[in-house]
Task: inverse folding
């Protein structure tokens, strides 16, 4: 026997474990380690909130009463999931693209961000869901009382009302803790979803365990249970095709429109690809859930006493066989089914209430006081609204439970609820697939369907104590027989649910179509309808704001109040950067405002976000003309313009490439001109001297003194040598630059190369009296190089060091060091050095810094050095901070060149 | 024989050659090799004719010419521009800036004599 204390303990431990799981998952998601949370498995399991206590307990009761009909409840969702490609894919895509927070928000957004529709759907959802929440409370209470029946006399467990109350309070606490932590609904509730996934596993395992026990433990295996089924009344069940089709349709519709299903299907969806997996995995889950329903029902009917509540067979069967552990597991399974449904439903409904009712009301109240709307953190308001809404919704569920007395069979309440929320279906599907659907049409359809549902199904379900008297049910209002709630227009004999579903859908769809055709959509509706209906076809959206005059700063203030300071600033600076601006304030372009509105809609809903931004920008969103201009009716125009845009982008890209190529060519041409001009100068200057002196010698030679003649002849000679060297250098450089020269690579000691260079510069060194400082031991290093070329580099550098060193005691130090992979030869003099700004320039052709010693140099030496070192795989660079001028030659060591 | 010519040119061999040719022709020749200080030298020497190279260390001959032409005292000084970059646009720029005569290196000695005498108004 399970004592009350044990039951309570297990329940509390289970709840504590759920809290821990939720807390842990939330923390991981916050740390960004949520990859597995986004897996299709978790997504699929979270969909299992479709299977509430109604299916956990009720399916067996349903089967006991109506045979295989319970399968319709699983059939509808299976059809929707298997056919996900047609409806669900679009629904999820649109929901994510528009940052939709609830099904009310979706309809509101689709129909021109209409507040009215948001309110209607919210109210409908609250009214339709409350009985369902009551149902869950009832199932927990009932399952509790099953155990209580075995408790000894004298022990007084808390009454069913108290149980229901404490369950509701506990659920409210859990939901508030994990459902209203962050504001952005699209951030998803990782903790809640994970806890639900755990509960999904628990309820599946529990039901399978009971099924296995019944089949193999009670009935004696598969053949035994088959024989038992054969003998049971279920075998004689006749298919009522009207009910079968209606219920399948109903469960399919409810699967799409139930607020809690929308929450897990669309809002909590982290990746659209999850759908592809869920498409087969969720039907599989449903199959497993329904596998043992008939065996349990049959076993219950056979072994339990007449009059036992079939809704509780799952629990009473193990108990009657004294399998208390199994009963406990079964109890937890039912408990899981009930709690997960209530939690998600409360989150979904509270989001709807806060975004579609509380915030618009608050905005309206504040409209007269614009100053006041500039202060305060809106997030607190939203979160408080949501928390209060969660409390209120659970209280409402509890109230309904108390009021209805927990009487009606579970399945009946479930179907009533399903039929209520299914009224959203025409507006939903119309919104996704029909551009002609309008806000007025949607509202008309919803109200009509809702009214018929309330009149024919909901109010009568409240029973004798409700607003519908027995007389009214029998004779119709005011004796009008054709208005009898369960036999409209005199059509009798229909099952009440089928009857209500049929007439409410006829009224709903009829009003929706008619009013849509007769009314004219507003510009914003047209825009939104294009975004929804063509959602999968194109991803670029037409701007919804034209020339908004709102200041970026006001928008930032608003965004900070809704998203929080750091998120808002990050969003704004990201957009500023995209616009090529610094700081936190992007230009309030239509594109940016659109993006911001979507972002805010993820927190407060489409209608509210739209109204808030409208208040700041003062713009009346789009006009009809703007609409015609930016988003014309036909898809072809959009596609055509998209194609044009692509072509234009391509053209612009080509133009940019051409421009760049042209700029490069121009630069090359300028460089070539400058080079030719320089060559001309370098050639003509010595030729001027040569021509002048040769003419002097020719014309006036006999009048000149011998030393004069001698002198002029030597000028001619020097200038000729200068010319020759210039031509040599030019040719050398050209050959090096074109890569036509092959290096004569050999292994030589560095000392040999340096010796060669110093020998050929010995005369200039001696003439200038330069002291050379060397460390001969460090020069003893084998190099793989072209010795002639490397010597040329050193000769040039030594010649420069000598030529430009005007110190009274000129010195030149040759310092050798090694760096991993490199041999470094530094040539350091004690001259004036080279100004920092000129240090890059000196390696360019013809760049002579001063002209004092210009004769004999065309300014090509360092350019040649650089070319040679590049060919050798090294480099030559100016080495700053050495006192005088210093050049570093980097030569690769053998390991590098190999 | 008070005819004074100032050679602003940085190539020592060219200065020597021109100096020889013009002094043989009766000119008193002065020379200066730096562009930066050339204006001061022109004012100090007060030549009758100026021979001005374009490529000078410190400051280009074009800039010196521009300053000369803007100067109240020196605006009328005959100037012979010399350049080793014989491109058409160099000549055009020199004329635009007010050079009296433009010659491309290398030149014959006779041409130099003729040009200097011509712009001095003495042939």
Result:
């Amino acid at each position: 026997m399970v004592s009350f204390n044990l039951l309570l303990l297990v329940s509390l431990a289970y709840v504590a474990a759920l809290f821990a799981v939720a807390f842990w998952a939330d923390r991981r998601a916050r740390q960004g380690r949520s990859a597995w949370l986004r897996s299709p498995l978790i997504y699929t399991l979270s969909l299992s909130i479709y299977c509430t206590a109604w299916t956990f307990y009720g399916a067996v009761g349903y089967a006991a009463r109506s045979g295989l009909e319970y399968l319709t409840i699983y059939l509808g969702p299976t059809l929707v999931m298997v056919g996900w490609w047609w409806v669900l894919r679009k629904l999820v895509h649109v929901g994510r693209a528009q940052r939709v927070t609830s099904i009310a928000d979706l309809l509101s957004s689709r129909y021109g961000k209409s507040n009215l529709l948001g309110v209607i759907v919210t109210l409908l959802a609250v009214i339709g869901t409350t009985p369902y929440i009551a149902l869950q409370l009832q199932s927990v209470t009932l399952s509790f009382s099953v155990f209580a029946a075995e408790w000894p006399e004298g022990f007084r467990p808390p009454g069913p009302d108290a149980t229901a109350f404490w369950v509701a309070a506990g659920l409210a606490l859990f939901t508030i803790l994990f459902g209203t932590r962050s504001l952005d609904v699209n951030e998803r509730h990782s903790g809640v979803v994970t806890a639900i996934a755990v509960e999904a596993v628990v309820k599946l395992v529990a039901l399978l365990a009971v099924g296995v026990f019944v089949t193999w433990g009670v009935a004696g295996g598969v053949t035994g249970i088959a024989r038992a089924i054969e003998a049971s009344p279920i075998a004689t069940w006749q298919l009522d095709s009207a009910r079968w089709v209606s219920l399948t349709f109903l469960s399919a519709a409810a699967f799409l429109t139930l607020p809690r299903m929308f929450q897990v299907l669309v809002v909590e969806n982290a990746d659209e690809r999850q759908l592809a997996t869920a498409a087969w995995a969720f039907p599989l889950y449903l199959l497993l859930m329904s596998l043992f329903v008939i065996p349990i029902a049959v076993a219950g009917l056979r072994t339990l006493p007449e009059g036992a509540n079939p809704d509780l067979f799952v629990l009473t069967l193990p108990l009657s066989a004294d399998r208390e552990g199994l009963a406990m597991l079964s109890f937890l399974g039912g408990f899981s089914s009930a709690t997960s449904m209530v939690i998600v439903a409360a989150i979904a409904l509270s989001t709807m209430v806060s975004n579609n009712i509380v915030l618009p009301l608050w905005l309206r109240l504040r409209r007269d006081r614009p100053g006041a709307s500039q202060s305060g953190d809106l997030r607190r308001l939203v979160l408080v609204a949501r928390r209060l809404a969660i409390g209120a919704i659970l209280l409402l569920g509890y109230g309904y439970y108390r009021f209805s007395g927990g009487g009606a069979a579970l399945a009946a309440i479930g179907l009533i609820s399903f039929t209520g929320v299914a009224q959203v279906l025409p507006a939903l599907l119309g919104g996704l697939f029909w551009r002609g659907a309008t806000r007025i049409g949607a509202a008309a359809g919803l109200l009509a369907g809702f009214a018929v549902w309330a009149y024919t199904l909901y109010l009568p379900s409240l029973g004798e104590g409700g607003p519908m008297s027995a007389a009214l049910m029998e004779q119709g209002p005011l004796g009008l027989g054709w208005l009898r709630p369960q036999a409209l227009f005199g059509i009798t004999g229909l099952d009440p649910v089928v009857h209500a579903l049929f007439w409410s859908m006829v009224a709903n769809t009829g009003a929706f179509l008619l009013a849509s055709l007769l009314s004219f959509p507003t510009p914003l509706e047209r825009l939104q309808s294009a975004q929804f209906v063509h959602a999968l076809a194109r991803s670029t959206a037409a701007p919804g704001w034209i020339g908004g005059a709102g200041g970026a700063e006001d928008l930032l203030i608003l965004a900070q109040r809704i998203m929080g300071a750091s998120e808002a600033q990050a969003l704004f600076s990201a957009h500023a950067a995209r616009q090529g601006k610094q700081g936190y304030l992007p230009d309030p372009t239509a594109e940016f405002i659109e993006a911001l509105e979507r972002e805010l809609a993820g927190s407060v809903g489409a209608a509210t976000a739209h109204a808030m931004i409208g208040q700041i920008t003062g713009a009346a969103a789009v006009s009809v003309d703007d609409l015609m201009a930016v988003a014309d009716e036909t898809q072809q125009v959009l596609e055509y313009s998209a194609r044009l845009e692509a072509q234009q982008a391509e053209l612009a890209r080509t133009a940019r490439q051409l421009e760049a190529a042209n700029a490069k060519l121009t630069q090359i041409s300028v460089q070539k001109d400058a080079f030719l001009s320089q060559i001309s100068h370098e050639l003509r200057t010595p030729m001027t001297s040569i021509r002048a002196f040769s003419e002097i010698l020719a014309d006036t030679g006999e009048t000149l003194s011998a030393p004069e003649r001698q002198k002029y002849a030597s000028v001619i000679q020097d200038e000729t040598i200068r010319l020759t060297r210039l031509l040599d250098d030019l040719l050398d450089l050209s050959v090096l630059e074109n890569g036509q020269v092959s290096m004569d690579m050999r292994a030589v000691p560095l000392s040999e190369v340096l010796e060669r260079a110093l020998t050929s510069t010995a005369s200039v060194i001696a003439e200038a009296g330069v002291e050379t400082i060397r460390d001969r031991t460090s020069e003893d290093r084998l190099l793989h190089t072209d010795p002639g070329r490397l010597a040329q580099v050193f000769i040039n550098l030594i010649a420069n060091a000598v030529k430009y060193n005007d110190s009274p005691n000129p010195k030149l130090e040759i310092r050798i060091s090694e760096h991993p992979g490199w041999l470094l030869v530094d040539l350091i003099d004690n001259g004036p050095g080279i100004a920092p700004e000129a240090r890059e320039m000196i390696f360019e052709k013809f760049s002579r810094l001063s002209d004092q010693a210009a004769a004999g140099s065309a300014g090509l030496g360092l350019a040649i050095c650089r070319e040679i070192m590049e060919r050798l795989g090294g480099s030559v660079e100016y080495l700053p901070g050495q006192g005088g001028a210093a050049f570093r030659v980097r030569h690769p060591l053998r390991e590098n060149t190999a | 024989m008070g005819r004074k010519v100032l050679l602003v040119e940085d190539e020592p061999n060219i200065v020597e050659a021109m100096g020889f040719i013009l002094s043989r022709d009766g000119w008193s020749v002065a020379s200066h090799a730096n562009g930066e200080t050339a204006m001061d030298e022109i004012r100090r020497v007060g030549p009758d004719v100026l021979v001005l190279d374009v490529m000078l260390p410190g400051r280009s001959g074009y800039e010196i010419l521009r300053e000369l032409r803007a100067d109240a005292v020196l605006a009328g000084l005959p100037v012979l521009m010399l350049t080793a970059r014989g491109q058409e646009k160099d000549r055009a720029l020199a004329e635009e800036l007010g050079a009296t005569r433009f010659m491309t290196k290398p030149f014959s000695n006779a041409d130099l004599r003729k040009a200097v005498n011509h712009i001095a108004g003495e042939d």
User: Anything to note?
Assistant: The CA atoms of residues 66 and 540 of chain A lie 51 Å apart. Chain A touches chain B at residues 677, 680-685, 687-693, 695-696, 699-700, 715, 718-719, 850-851, 854-855 (CB under 8 Å). The radius of gyration of chain A is 44 Å.
